[in-house]
Amino acid sequence: MQIHRRFAALPGNARGASLALGNFDGVHIGHRAVIAAAGEAARRLGVPLGVLTFEPHPREVLAPERAPARLTTFARKVRLMEELGVEQLIALPFDHRLMSQAPEAFAKEILVDLLSIRAAAAGHDFCFGHRRSGDMAQLSTLGRQMGFAVQSVHGVELDGQLASSTLIRKLLLAGNLADANALLGANFCTGGIVVHGDARGRELGYPTANIQAVGRKTLLPANGIYAVRAGVQWPDGLLWYDGVCSLGTRPTFDGNDRRLEVNILDGRYDLYGLRMKVEFVARLRGEEYFADIDALIQQMARDCANARAALCAAPPSLGTGKGRIIAG
Ligand SMILES: Cc1cc2nc3c(=O)[nH]c(=O)nc-3n(C[C@H](O)[C@H](O)[C@H](O)COP(=O)(O)O)c2cc1C
Ligand SMILES: Nc1ncnc2c1ncn2[C@@H]1O[C@H](COP(=O)(O)OP(=O)(O)O)[C@@H](O)[C@H]1O
After folding, report:
1. SUPFAM superfamilies of this UniProt entry (predicted)?
2. Distance 317 CA to ligand 2 centre (A)
3. Checking CA distances to 325, which of 87, 206, 238, 300 falls within 20 to 30 Å?
């Protein structure tokens, strides 16, 4: 996949694609339906499949204090889109010129003059142009006038819930990881760098790598204990391990800061300073206060056994998206 981040540096092969338009935070099953629709048009027309998005999200530029925490970093979006077969990712900076562009000017200057698109697909509620004044009906009209096909894609519902980034954020914050992952079509994933903690984990018999976010933070799920897959970025490549993670303030030890800590179930490693990805596979329980440390240690042993069982039963991490396209 080729990634284009600057208007001025768009090579010729970024032009003439079938493009999915949107922000795609989470790359959830609704987003996947939009990308699939753009992919079908790409195959029909014999042109590359692309995604046009703005990075950072316009909301993060216009009202950063009100922007919700992200489900996916840009790097994670790139990886998920690559898995979906996206060939050209055009992630343009959202600047003041773009902000003030009327819908017609956006279509003419960006979609036609800059990108010469052949087709566009977006969610039925997609808005574009100055103050989000352009909608899908207008994009279809502009497409007819300017010579590109437009497909409006209906929302995707899973077990009666319409996939949306907002709903997935709510589910994660409420501790409903199973539904959030189902709507994501992949396991929720975050990560960071392994830093020093209180050196207590090794005394308990469960060393835990403390993960500190680097760069733009993602949302974190509700506090609790989770079965995870931990991706360690060793100098010579990324390796995945089964693990268990504790997310929260460690009430047993009067912790006051919120920490994300991962115990890799098998083996001992020196992880300090390395990057680690944490894929949340299943929620095991909430954090608890233990008056007796031995009781916590016994519970941690049960957590590890439960994590093993959950990880054995879990489907492969990516491409598990299910869902039904609904009308309307
Ligand atoms: C599987 C697992 C379950 C845990 N459950 C709890 C818990 O219920 N309550 C709690 O206070 N801390 C819990 N912890 C967090 C430990 O207290 C924490 O890992 C320990 O204090 C080590 O901290 P350190 O990495 O800073 O040394 C859990 C940790 C793990 C790995
Ligand atoms: N299986 C393992 N899972 C997680 N960390 C491990 C493991 N084996 C060794 N370690 C190392 O132990 C460190 C965590 O030990 P711990 O006693 O919890 O101290 P601290 O939290 O202060 O770093 C990790 O950062 C890592 O370098």
Report:
1. Nucleotidylyl transferase, Riboflavin kinase-like
2. 24
3. 87
Give the range among 6-10, 23-27, 229-233 with minimum mean pLDDT: 6-10
210 lines ligand 1 (CB under 6 A): yes
The reply to whether ligand 1 has any atom less than 6 angstroms from the CB of 252 is: yes
Please tell me the distance from the alpha carbon of residue 66 to that of residue 308, in angstroms, as a whole number.
39
In terms of domains, do 137 and 14 share one?
A: yes
Compute the residue count for the chain. 328
> Ligand 1 centroid to 226 CA: how many Å?
12
The boundaries of the domain holding residue 126 are 2-158
Asked which of 1-10, 161-170, 209-218 is least confident by mean pLDDT, the reply is: 1-10
Return the structure tokens found at 276. Answer: 């680690």
Write the pLDDT tens digit of every residue in 116-151. Answer: 999 999 999 999 888 889 999 999 999 999 999 999
Do 88 and 208 sit in the same domain of this protein? no
pLDDT digits (tens, 9 = 90+) for 70-120: 999 999 999 999 999 999 999 988 777 777 889 999 999 999 999 999 999
Residues 6+ apart with CB under 8 A from 189: 72, 76, 277, 278, 279, 280
Based on the structure, what is the number of domains in the chain?
2
